[in-house]
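Notes from the 1:1 (GR / supervisor)

We went over the backlog. Supervisor wanted to see one worked example end to end before approving the batch request, so GR pasted a single chain during the call. The sequence is below; no edits were made to it. Supervisor asked that the structure be written out right there so they could see what the output format looks like.
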Amino acid sequence: MTNSAIFVTITILALAAFAFGRQRSLTIASGNIARLHSLPRHHGYFAASCAMIPALAIFTIWTIFGKDILEGLMIAGLPEEMAAQYREQAALVLNRIRLVVENSTTNEQDINIISAANHFKELYRYGIWASFTLSIASGLIGLLVALNKTQPDFRARNHFEKILSIILIASSTIAIIATLGIVLSLLFESLRFFNEVSIIDFVFGTKWSPQTALRADQVGSSGAFGAVPLFAGTLLISFLAMLIAGPIGLFSAIYLTQYASRPVRKFGKPLLEILAGVPTVVYGFFAALTIAPLFRDTGDLLGLAISSESALAAGFVMGIMIIPFVSSLSDDAITAVPRSLKDGSLALGATKSETIIKVIIPAALPGIVGAFLLAISRAVGETMIVVMAAGMQPNLTANPFEAVTTVTVQIVALLTGDQEFDSAKTLSAFALGLALFITTMLLNFVALRLVRKYREAYE
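Structure output shown during the call:
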């Protein structure tokens, strides 16, 4: 028995509950639906909910806490000599046991470790069958309760909608809690970093070199955590990307919605959106193997010194990647403008271009700004293209022909491999994340203010 098998069984139970609940309502009504307060499918939905929710709740509790509980029981049953070793080296002993549990061919020689692993396997087998039994039993009890409530005057639709609203509220609450957890974790780790490094040096420092030595007498033991080069590189590459994606994406949306014939739109829009489905690593290969050498060779012909890894190459390819984000969302915003506005403008003698500029674009402005914001966020968060086309060297420059790096690239570099979360080097990744989060929030705030100021309101 596996967790997947339990989930599939619960799903089958819910489908069966739907069929039983629906059939039960039809049987009670003697086939006359008019006698029922709610439609038969609503009785089926209610029965499925009563069967699935308690079963899923028990299954979720087992999935989240089951292994920890079983490890606690296993540790409680360790021999005395091994328990003493566990108290001294808890993590090491537990990892050795886990290795034996996950890989029976391990070279572990300690009989106590092997015995503890076998004991855990036995506990896990009992635990998963217990969770399966409890899940199915609770689901069957819920089904029986639902079938017992099935009567002609039972308000199944109202009860199901109440259950659905509770699920939606719970989902929204989980999303809010997850967001708060992310923000608080960033804030907490960032405060630890700023206890070691001055926030003034971080915000206004112009040198980024987080490599710290293990001993105070070694060279470079203090490190340098000035984040200005990273944010300068991020802004430079994002700006270059938007120079490509912004005009092309917006003009593509205008053409497809206002000028293109139906066959051209039917073919062109999906073809353009294919770009959004290409993996970023493919764009990275394209940038590193094609665009970067092309720009370098072109620069040699024109007498320009363009680096093999440059912000220009990364920004250009990133702009191509985010064209579908601008185009598709702008297309939806323009399409949502009431046709009466366009027809009224044309009827008053305005040309098509004047109608687009003075009526359609102002009316679709919130959606277009949202498209640009999403594209900017996508550009700011991109990592693979920057690594492969722009490099990882912090460089404070506004020259697009030189190599730069971005905040996200440095975060990945700082958190790659085995890291100690007590060093300023690793904690600086959280400070960078917090700064990026605040920057994005400010960008959204400014964009909302601009939209409210310049948007056109229509009755």
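Supervisor's comment: The longest strand covers residues 208-209.
Batch request approved.
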